[in-house]
User: Which sequence fits this backbone?
């Protein structure tokens, strides 16, 4: 039977100073002053339009992403968080994350962000190499990246994530490990370390950079994971590593097929309705100008997930987690009986691609390396 899962909130800030050549997110280069107060008012009205789906739940996490959210000032976030608290409320120890880029101007605002109620930063470092940062089109250099981390710590952020990429143009294993060692020197509780991928509708897709061979990237990933594990950072998701009890509450809610409200230009949401026995996906109007001007209706799409697609939708998320899921989670988050996928789980277990321990189902070591093939069995 479908039950109400935990609830999170995603807030999208669509502007950035310069769009990176690998980025396929809904981000738009800013020209002149940003319409901060107008956008905050639109976000608050957008949230109000979603309140019916809250159904008495408080928020366990908020993630403010972009774009470059650190381009907005702290007062904007004070206003947003005050409105959210009044309309929905926060669970105890609610995790509130702000994505920030290490440019000097943004870094100087970190103390104000902390005072505004942000209790976790996610810093888009990507690399500490000046050469790589230039290739990636980043607006900061290695020194600014290091300085931003130091400022974040001095501003009171003891909980922060560092975002790093590997498999960068002409990158060696030694270069990738150097980035990781530099990051580890700041004792982060959480690291996102993921491979650069070439996405459609990006500059890199039209003009691909010289990337390392797949075999070298595989060796790079294995060496990096060994280093992170030795430092106590456990891989709990495909590209996320954390100390014990420092996993991102927001990320976990995504991967455990929890609910989340999405507000802001192009923001996506997922909301369950046990009364209707349905799970809805939503998306807001993508272009910032359209979003700002649409005072009556900012949702551009809302549709129920087709029941036949629910098992795959759930597993696309849950099997990314090292710990996987249990049968009760599958049933309460999808509203389907576990028998819906039981025979395919048994088959994959027989092929040593899934491990089943009592009620817990997770990808085996081999299955985790072949996750796409595992998921294809549920198409």
Assistant:
């Amino acid at each position: 039977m479908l039950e109400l899962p935990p609830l999170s909130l995603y807030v999208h800030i669509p502007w950035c100073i310069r769009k990176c050549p690998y980025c396929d997110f809904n981000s738009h280069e800013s020209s002149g002053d940003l319409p901060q107060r107008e956008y905050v008012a639109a976000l608050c009205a957008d949230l109000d339009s979603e309140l019916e789906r809250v159904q008495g739940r408080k928020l366990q996490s908020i993630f403010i992403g972009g774009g470059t959210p650190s381009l907005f000032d702290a007062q904007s976030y004070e206003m947003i968080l005050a409105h959210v608290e009044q309309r929905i409320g926060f669970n105890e120890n609610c995790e509130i994350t702000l994505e920030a880029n290490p440019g000097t101007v943004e870094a100087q605002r970190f103390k104000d962000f902390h005072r505004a109620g942000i209790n976790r930063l996610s810093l888009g470092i990507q690399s500490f190499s000046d050469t790589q940062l230039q290739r990636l089109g980043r607006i900061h250099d290695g020194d600014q990246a290091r300085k931003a981390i130091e400022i974040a710590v001095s501003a009171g952020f003891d909980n922060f994530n560092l975002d790093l990429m590997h498999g960068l143009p002409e990158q060696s294993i030694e270069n990738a490990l150097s980035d990781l060692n530099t990051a580890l020197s700041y004792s982060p509780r959480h690291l996102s370390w993921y491979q650069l991928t070439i996405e459609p509708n990006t500059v890199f897709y039209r003009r691909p950079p010289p990337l390392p061979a797949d075999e070298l990237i595989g060796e790079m990933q294995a060496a990096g994971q060994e280093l992170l594990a030795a430092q106590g950072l456990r891989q709990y998701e495909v590209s996320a590593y954390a100390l014990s009890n420092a996993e991102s509450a927001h990320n976990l809610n995504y991967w455990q097929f929890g609910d989340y409200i999405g507000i802001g230009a192009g923001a996506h949401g997922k909301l369950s309705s046990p009364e209707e026995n349905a799970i809805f996906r939503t998306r807001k109007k993508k272009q910032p100008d359209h979003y700002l001007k649409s005072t009556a209706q900012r949702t551009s799409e809302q549709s129920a997930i087709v029941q036949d697609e629910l098992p795959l939708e759930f597993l696309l998320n849950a099997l990314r987690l090292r710990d996987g899921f249990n049968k009760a989670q599958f049933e309460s988050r999808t509203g389907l009986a576990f028998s819906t996928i039981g025979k395919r789980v048994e088959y994959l277990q027989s092929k040593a691609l899934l491990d089943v321990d009592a009620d817990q189902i997770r990808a085996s070591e081999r299955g985790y390396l072949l996750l796409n093939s595992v998921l294809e069995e549920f198409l």
Summary: The domain at 7-253 is CATH 3.20.20.70 (TIM Barrel). The chain has two domains: 7-253, 307-379. The two ends are 22 Å apart (CA to CA).
